């Protein structure tokens, strides 16, 4: 082929001694751009068309069980321009489907793609490429490697007189063809075709590299999407509805065409969808399976029609991704269920501890109730005896009234403390909580020869808290201190200002806590007391209440000398 090897004024004719380094760099450079498959093939076809000097070329490649066919031709005889005629997918499932199963030329293409050739035949190279210089002439194709021909005469004909069909591979499983076409007769020599075989191998490496780059980018997108979903679910105090809404916004970024992707998540019959989502769109879906029960679905769709890939317009990696997202949503729901169960258990523990504390305070309560009740009884008797003196009777009855009110207040405080449902948070004066909380404690301390010191800081800032729960914290700590002083001693309760909060200190001059167990005292049901003296819930409940108020609790102890509990509670956000 004289004009293929000789440089002329026409840029379509090139020397067959190619600069392979430059060709490889150019094709690899395109592969590195991260272009979609179609654009990559477009640019590649233009490069090869200008390089070869042919009037047309064709690239066929097997990808995801389909034939991708790109055809490029010279747009204008006087200008070195090209255009892409077609990119289309053939859904046939053969190893390398041909465009026309009755065509001899297509059968030759299939043979080359599958490696069935005989290098001894005059129209084949040692590398397995086929070339012909006059398609109008018949030729004999008789070889065991080309069984379809059966030794018969083959005549191709067609628009082009010269053809070169070169097989190459993008990877082990994906055969590809590079077909050069010229209207000139005898355009290709054997040397030309062997040079083009090297270029085809370079194209195969560039295509493989582009695919690897694409796969890496898709994997990064998938992992980033999953990481963001996990990060959303890790946010404190976030509801399931808010998690679903944020996950919906993230999903499109993990898909091959993120600008065209939309999504919907259905949870327990409630649907959450992006604005572009419609039921009529072709979608990919996966069930959200929670503990063997289907709670809903994750669905992804494209807002416009796209070429068929592995599963509709979706690639197999996207099937794996949507399954991973649905599994992650299932884990989020399971985790929220567990958290809700834990919350309910904590409330049960707190209620059980309230009841246990009430039992421990029974003696003090009985004392407080007996005093006013004795007064009621005594003055009632006096009122009966002095009915003649209306003034005296009125005074006695007034004392009965006051004593009754006092008894009612004692009962009211007891009921408030034992109540299972905690009150809502409100603005609380902690000094007032302590003063009210000591109502039951002082009498018990007096009976057990315990001195109670109370040092409350003036002008203590108010905090946003649950008053009933703070009352429980104080009572549990003081009862714990009383039990550490069987032979009497001193309990000190003090408040102070802290940075952006308040500090409560409860200390006792009791037995102290051994170093071996001091890290376990806040664990539920851990106790060193006898069965009838404690449940092991008191300090665990105190710890839970303090954490729920975003505070901290610390303990220091010296065996045989003292134990000091220090609690910090932040001011918190005041509700208007």
Structural overview:
- The strands form five sheets. A six-stranded antiparallel beta sheet has the order 3-2-1-8-7-4, sandwiched between helices. A five-stranded mixed beta sheet has the order 14-16-17-19-18, with helices on one face. Strands 10-9-12-11 form a four-stranded antiparallel beta sheet, with helices on one face.
- A hairpin with a 2-residue loop joins strand 11 and strand 12.
- It folds into three domains: 212 residues, Beta-Lactamase; 99 residues, Beta-Lactamase (2-Layer Sandwich); 152 residues, 2-Layer Sandwich (Heat Shock Protein 90).
- It is of the alpha+beta class and 576 residues long.
- The N terminus is likely disordered.
- The protein contains twelve helices and 19 strands.
């Amino acid at each position: 082929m004289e004009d293929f090897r000789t440089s002329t004024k026409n840029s379509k004719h090139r020397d067959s001694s190619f600069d392979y380094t430059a060709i490889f760099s150019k094709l690899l450079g395109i592969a590195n751009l991260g272009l979609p498959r179609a654009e990559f093939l477009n640019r590649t076809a233009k490069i090869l068309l200008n390089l070869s000097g042919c009037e047309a070329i064709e690239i066929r490649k097997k990808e995801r069980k389909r034939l991708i066919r790109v055809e490029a031709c010279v747009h204008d005889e006087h200008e070195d321009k090209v255009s892409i005629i077609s990119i289309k997918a053939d859904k046939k499932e053969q190893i390398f489907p041909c465009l026309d199963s009755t065509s001899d030329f297509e059968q030759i293409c299939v043979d080359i793609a599958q490696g069935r050739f005989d290098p001894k035949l005059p129209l084949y190279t040692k590398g397995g490429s086929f070339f012909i210089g006059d398609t109008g002439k018949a030729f004999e194709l008789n070889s065991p490697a080309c069984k379809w021909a059966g030794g018969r005469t083959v005549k191709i004909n067609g628009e082009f007189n010269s053809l070169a069909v070169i097989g190459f591979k993008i990877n082990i499983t994906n055969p590809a063809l590079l077909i050069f076409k010229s209207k000139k007769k005898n355009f290709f020599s054997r040397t030309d075709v062997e040079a083009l075989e090297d270029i085809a191998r370079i194209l195969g490496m560039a295509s493989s590299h582009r695919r690897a780059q694409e796969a890496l980018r898709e994997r990064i997108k998938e992992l980033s999407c999953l990481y963001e979903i996990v990060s959303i679910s890790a946010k404190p105090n976030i509801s399931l509805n808010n998690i679903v809404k944020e996950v919906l916004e993230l999903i499109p970024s993990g898909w091959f065409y993120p600008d065209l992707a939309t999504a919907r998540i259905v949870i327990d019959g409630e649907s959450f969808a992006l604005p572009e989502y419609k039921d009529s769109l072709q979608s990919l879906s996966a069930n959200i399976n929670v503990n063997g029960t289907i709670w809903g679905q994750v669905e992804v769709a494209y807002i416009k029609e796209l070429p068929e890939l592995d599963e509709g317009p979706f690639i197999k990696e996207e099937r794996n991704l949507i399954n991973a997202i649905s599994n992650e949503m299932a884990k989020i729901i399971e985790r929220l269920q567990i958290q809700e169960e834990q919350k309910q258990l904590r409330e049960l523990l707190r209620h059980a501890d309230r009841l246990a504390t009430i039992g421990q305070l029974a003696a003090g309560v009985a004392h407080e109730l007996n005093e006013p009740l004795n007064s009621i009884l005594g003055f009632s008797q006096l009122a009966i005896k002095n009915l003649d003196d209306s003034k005296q009777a009125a005074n006695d009855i007034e004392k009965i009234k006051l004593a009754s009110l006092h008894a009612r207040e004692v009962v009211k405080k007891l009921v408030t403390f034992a109540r299972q449902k905690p009150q809502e948070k409100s603005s609380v004066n902690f000094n007032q909580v302590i003063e009210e909380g000591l109502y039951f404690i002082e009498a018990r301390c007096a009976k057990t020869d315990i001195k109670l010191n109370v040092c409350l800081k003036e002008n203590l800032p108010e905090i946003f808290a649950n008053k009933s729960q703070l009352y429980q914290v104080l009572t549990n700590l003081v009862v714990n201190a009383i039990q550490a002083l069987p032979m009497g001693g001193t309990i000190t309760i003090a408040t102070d200002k802290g940075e952006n909060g308040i500090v409560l200190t409860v200390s006792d001059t009791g037995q102290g806590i051994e170093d071996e167990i001091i890290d376990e005292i806040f664990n539920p049901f851990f106790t060193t007391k006898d069965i009838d003296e404690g449940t092991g819930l008191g300090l665990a409940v105190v710890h839970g209440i303090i954490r729920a108020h975003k505070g901290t609790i610390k303990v220091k102890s010296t065996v045989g000398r003292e134990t000091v509990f220090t609690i910090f509670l932040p001011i918190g956000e005041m509700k208007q």
